[in-house]
Predict the structure.
Amino acid sequence: MLVSEAVKRDIITVKRSLPLRSLLELFKSFHTHPLIPVVDDAGGLIGVVYPENLLDLLRPFQAKLFRNVPFMDIDEDTFDLEPVPYMGELIIVDDIMDTNFFSLKEEETITQAYKMMRLHKKERLPVVDGQGKLVGILGIFDVIWNMFREKEIV
């Protein structure tokens, strides 16, 4: 089975100029995918915003440096910073989006997609076509469901 047969196409996308306040409202209202793809005017995928990117806004800079260090507990002071209310309009998606992201191609198999998800430790990944245009998001449950469907269990 191919990724194109399992991908969720009903997703939210944003432009890089969207203010933080609007982005947070989108996350709140469409929380089934804990990532929001960032696309250019032609629909090309240029970045991804994960909840982790949003939490980084509340963390001290030093905590961001140690985020990937094993056994380092950095979340205890996550909410100690006092953000100013107008940062909701001053910070835009371009300031926080992750441009070093992984995506799946819609012509890959479900098995390949699962291996990529495990390798990169992601439960959801954006899916692009051959031209790099976003077509949807594939989640781990989509993979599991389709594996069971192929085995005629569901």
